[in-house]
Amino acid sequence: MAGPLLQAWGLGAALRSRAALRPLGLLAPPCRELAGTGSGEAALEENPFYGKYRHKIQELRRSSPDVFESRMEKRNEVKKQPVGYSKQGEFIKCMEEKAEGLGTKTSKGGFTKDKTLDSILNVEMVKEKSAEEIKQIWNQYFSAKDTVYAVIPAEKFDVIWKRAQKCPSFLYALPRKEGYEFFVGQWSGTELHFTSLINIQTQGETAPSQLVLYHYSELQEEKGIVLMTAEMDSKFLMVHEAQCLANQVQLFYATDRSETYELVETFNHRSSEFKYMSVIAELEQSGLGRELRPAQVSDKS
Questions:
Q1: Smallest Cα–Cα separation from 174: which of 263, 246, 96?
Q2: In angstroms, what CA-CA distances link 143 with 122, 137, 194, 246?
């Protein structure tokens, strides 16, 4: 399935035309490969995030060499597409198929399958408390843990949830020192699963989630709040990076700004018009993730 995903995005050539910005995680080869020089493996290794996924890529190469070679060949086919080529609808279809499988597959990467609110706190007992008291209990409990958490007002989550039903997937940009690493967020019920785009490109529909946001709406009607917490694969994401992705969910799904939410609608329903650079522009305008980008230090030597 990695082949259709790569074909769906077809962004390698487009990225090469914007080399100064160098958004990451798209397996974009350097300019010299426009002429067709260099092997697929060599180009893959030049990706700034190759080191993070080296073990899984090499494991695929050893266990299923035919599959690995097939994905490399399909990747090379994408590079031959003209600038602006896009079959993103196929990508979204693949993500929807991945979402359908989330409820039936065994949880990977140490994530809790069917994680319930009752497994965290006594729901019947907290119903006797006010929304503010529950918020304090929730925040105090998770403040001592390395994870992402929040108490979302019912009205805001209602907006997010209704939009998630219409637009279940989106592309998020995580600021890095060198540029941006892209993550795909896919809703499955009230869970939001994040997987890096390079992970999808190398592993296809078997790519495991690297971050899962759990939303609990049991107290939404009675207390006017929705509780959220998360689990993440700490080999790939730090807490403040996961927090940046979680904040972007509210930026794009709970916004009052029509131009911002229109990016989500475009990604899901007018895929040929979607421009990933608009996501970066919106993120930079919001200021989210600014702390993830170290200040540039000029070379005075």
A1: 246
A2: 18, 10, 22, 16
The answer to whether the beta carbons of residues 249 and 213 sit under 8 Å apart is yes
Compute the distance between CA of residue 278 and CA of residue 225 in angstroms, rounded to an integer. 31
What does the alpha-carbon distance between residue 262 and residue 264 come to, in Å, rounded to a whole number?
A: 5
Pairing of strands 211-216, 191-196: antiparallel
Q: Do residues 10 and 78 lie in contact, with contact meaning Cβ atoms separated by under 8 Å?
A: yes
The 10 Å Cβ neighbour count of residue 87 is 16
Contact 185, 193 (CB under 8 A): yes
What is the spatial distance between Cα 115 and Cα 66, in angstroms, rounded to a whole number?
A: 37
Q: What is the pLDDT of residues 22-50, one digit of tens each?
A: 344 433 233 333 333 344 555 555 555 55
From CA 38, how far away is CA 29, in angstroms rounded? 10
Q: What is the pTM of this model?
A: 0.67
Residue 197, amino acid: L
Whether the Cβ atoms of residue 160 and residue 254 lie closer than 8 Å to each other = yes
